[in-house]
């Protein structure tokens, strides 16, 4: 029914939502759908709950993204109320879209999930598969199931490829499968510029990012017994005049680069506000998704997750250190 309605001749009003602070997969998947639905002659809006990283402004279609704020709230509300379909892309929990949640819950539009995170909420239509490496794969499947792969052009392929690259760590993560490479191959056939994409996605170290990295590395602690590394960033470490959320990206991976370390954690305090934000990364079969869900009201994937703590930075780290001993066996035998 959904496919026939969207594929039909009747023009639909569609709203696309990525999650807060959208990453490459969320933006790439959303932009790909924006171009795709436009090709089907639908009225489409892409609304980001927050600002998106400047490092993705080169992506085609970003100029059409409507960022939710107090200045755009009435316009966003109008688009939500008048929509026929609302797509939720690369997240499965309304907590990931801030205040927009209340606007959406009042809408009579059909709500459609396209996401690869585990334990999704229930939506009217669900394209959910936590085993795949990226939501971009599910968007490709979605277009394929509608028998419209011929509508994937260079712009759509570029957006989907960015989603694949960013959520697979440039095709390095354990979640990568033959399907991942098959889809990448199909996207390459559309004439995308791989060298340009790779160059854009390589980390650009501005002065503020390097200073944050330096401070985080100075505070890096290693717990050899539990094959764990952790560090923290305090609000006093941050120059907020030039700070951007993406400045802390990549810091957590340095811990995993240490020999025999399988668990890396970053505690982040922003403007002395709560909650403390925590990022988790792991190697092998140590499940940071379950760890974050159980102890830090978070979640994500087996090897990459996030969480929060209502305690201050010192108490949050202390709590973490108190629970780590209970994971001695899973950490020691992670492969």
TrEMBL record:
Signal sequence annotation: none
Domain of life of the source: Bacteria
Annotated DDH domain residues: 13-163
Cross-referenced InterPro entries: DDH_dom, DHH_sf, DHHA1_dom, Oligoribo/pAp-PDE_c-di-AMP_PDE
Domain DHHA1: 249-319
Pfam families attached to this UniProt entry: DHH, DHHA1
PANTHER family given in the database record: BIFUNCTIONAL OLIGORIBONUCLEASE AND PAP PHOSPHATASE NRNA
Protein name (record): Phosphoesterase domain-containing protein
Taxonomic classification: Bacteria, Pseudomonadati, Bacteroidota, Flavobacteriia, Flavobacteriales
């Amino acid at each position: 029914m959904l496919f026939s309605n969207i594929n039909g001749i009747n023009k639909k009003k569609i709203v696309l939502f990525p999650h807060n602070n959208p990453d490459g997969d969320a933006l790439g998947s959303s932009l790909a759908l924006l171009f795709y639905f436009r090709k089907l002659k639908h009225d489409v809006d892409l609304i980001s709950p927050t600002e998106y990283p400047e490092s993705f402004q080169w992506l085609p279609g970003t100029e059409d993204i409507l960022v939710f704020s107090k200045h755009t709230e009435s316009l966003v509300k109008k688009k939500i109320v008048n929509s026929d379909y609302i797509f939720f892309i690369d997240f499965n929990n309304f907590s990931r879209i801030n205040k927009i949640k209340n606007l959406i819950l009042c809408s009579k539009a059909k709500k459609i999930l396209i996401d690869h995170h585990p334990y999704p909420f229930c939506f009217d239509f669900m394209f959910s598969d936590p085993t795949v490496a990226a939501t971009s794969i599910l968007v490709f499947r979605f277009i394929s199931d509608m028998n419209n792969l011929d509508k994937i052009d260079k712009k759509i392929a570029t957006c989907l490829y960015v989603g694949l690259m960013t959520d697979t760590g440039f095709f390095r993560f354990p979640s990568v499968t033959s399907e991942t490479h098959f889809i990448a191959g199909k996207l390459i056939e559309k004439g995308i510029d791989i060298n340009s994409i790779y160059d854009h996605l390589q980390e650009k170290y501005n002065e503020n990012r390097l200073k944050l990295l330096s401070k985080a590395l100075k505070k890096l602690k290693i717990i050899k017994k539990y094959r764990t590394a952790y560090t923290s960033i305090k609000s006093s470490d941050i120059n907020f005049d030039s700070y951007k959320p993406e400045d802390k990206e990549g810091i957590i991976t340095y811990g995993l680069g240490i020999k025999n370390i399988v668990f890396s954690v970053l505690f982040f305090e922003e403007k002395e506000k709560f909650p403390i934000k925590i990022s988790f990364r792991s190697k092998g079969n140590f499940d940071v998704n379950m760890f974050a869900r159980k102890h830090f009201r978070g979640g994500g994937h087996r090897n990459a997750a996030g969480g929060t703590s209502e305690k201050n930075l010192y108490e949050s780290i202390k709590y973490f250190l108190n629970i780590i001993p209970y994971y001695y066996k899973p950490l020691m035998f992670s492969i």
